[in-house]
Design a protein that fits this description.
6-stranded parallel beta sheet; alpha/beta; single chain; TIM Barrel; 17 helices; two-stranded antiparallel sheet
Length: about 425
């Protein structure tokens, strides 16, 4: 047999690359094991930044439940299937993507690395993975789009109390070539997050994660002219002086004064989400954009049925990575019920995905595609753009090899037959 003609998939390529480099004494800069990846990121980050990226709500029961749900689902391999290559491609919202992996929208990526979303955009484009821009990005969506060329991107929306601002963000997303709008449902208020509270640290109060707003003409229009001052002037402590200097520095790229930055933080805090949204508001969103609408945060089958009845284009099963409701159901546990209730509406998945084998399990349970979150942020913290690329390569290599080892030739062929009985 001529081994030189043997097909080589993503998994073999990545393995070979790592092992060949190992012959020269070079180990991967980014750990492969999920637990070691998180610990390596912790070493590279300041305590408040790691807390924001890694933390969950309350006692973090839901964060752990997400991981435990994957532990309970087991694969049941088949052999002698005659497959030599794997097809990882999937079809989502009329687009064919090379793999079922998308990069989830993560806010305040400057917590992980100064290049933030810009580095992630480059990595996603290079690896051929769609990137979902966050409303709470550290880099304006236009800058990320310029880095990505024709590579696919979506936009995640927090529906502001200022409808004019919401419409402006939608127009900008369309102009940037976004292929879908992802409306996040589960963050109408910020969850109770002890790691951040114990440190007294919320990035937005320091002007971080506000790039989409500071670059938006509607938002900026409210910041010009004299701003109302506080009733009393707080003492000029060293900590407040440092905070003022940090705000001033963040305003400089947008030509905003310190007072305008303070006004920006106050306005964002007052308007960033709308707790009073109802299902009827989706009709307004449909009028405001020509893009497909994806609802992120669906866990209850009744909500899935309602979303389908309202004509949404897709939905994402998600509990915000355990960051919002402590004690909420593990996302993977909720996935089968949502898929059954959604009918013909495509269902995507996030929350707790750490490996390629996790992607296999989620797709086997009915997800069309899967969003990866914290792991790529950890890669970003460790090695910037290259770190994000390595995380993507590792997850997709694991996906490819897992398919090979369970006897499945294509992601689209995954179903419950590859799972052990519960």
């Amino acid at each position: 047999m001529d081994m030189t003609s043997e097909p080589v998939g993503r998994g073999r390529q990545r393995q070979t690359q790592v092992y060949v480099r190992g012959l020269g004494g070079e180990k991967p800069a980014v750990p492969v094991a999920p637990e070691r990846l998180q610990e390596a990121a912790r070493v590279h980050l300041k305590a408040p930044d790691f807390a924001y990226l890694a933390g969950g709500a309350g006692a973090e029961r839901t964060l752990r439940a997400n991981l435990a749900a994957f532990e309970r689902v087991q694969l049941l391999p088949r052999h002698l299937r005659g497959h030599t290559e794997r097809d990882l491609s999937v079809s989502v919202l009329g687009h064919t993507y090379a793999t079922p992996l998308l990069l989830a929208p993560l806010g305040v990526l400057e917590c992980a690395h100064p290049d933030a979303d810009r580095a992630v955009a480059r990595a996603a484009a290079t690896e051929g993975v769609p990137f979902i821009y966050s409303s709470q990005a550290s880099v304006p969506m236009e800058d990320c789009a310029a880095e990505m060329g024709e590579s696919p991107r979506w936009f995640q929306l927090y529906w502001s109390r200022d409808d004019d601002l919401t419409r402006s963000l939608l127009r900008r997303a369309e102009a940037c070539g976004a292929q879908a709008i992802v409306l996040t449902l589960d963050t109408t208020v910020l969850g109770w997050r002890p790691r951040d509270l114990d440190l007294g640290h919320l990035p937005f109060m320091r002007g971080r994660g506000l790039a989409q707003y500071l670059s938006d003409p509607v938002f900026r229009a409210h910041l010009h002219g004299p701003q109302p001052g506080p009733a009393t002037t707080p003492p000029r402590t060293p900590a407040l002086l440092r905070a003022g200097a940090e705000l001033a520095a963040r305003g400089r790229p947008y030509h905003l004064s310190l007072e305008q930055m303070r006004a920006a933080v106050a306005r964002f805090t007052a308007t960033y989400t709308r707790p009073d949204l109802t299902w009827d508001d989706l009709a307004r969103l449909r009028e405001w954009t020509r893009l497909p609408i994806v609802l992120k945060g669906i866990l209850h089958p009744d909500d899935a049925r309602e979303a389908a009845a309202r004509g949404v284009d897709a939905m994402i099963v998600s509990n915000h990575g355990g960051r919002q409701v402590d004690g909420a159901v593990g996302a993977l546990d909720a996935l089968p019920g949502v898929v059954a209730a959604a009918g013909d509406v495509p269902v995507l998945f996030d929350s707790g995905v750490r490996t390629g084998a996790d992607i296999v399990k989620a797709v086997a349970l009915g997800a069309r595609a899967v969003l990866l979150g914290r792991p790529y942020a950890y890669g970003l913290a460790i090695a910037g753009e290259e770190g994000v690329r390595e995380v993507i390569q590792n997850v997709l290599a694991d996906l490819d090899l897992t398919l090979a080892l369970i006897g499945v030739a294509a992601v689209r062929d995954l179903d419950r037959s590859v799972l052990a009985p519960a």
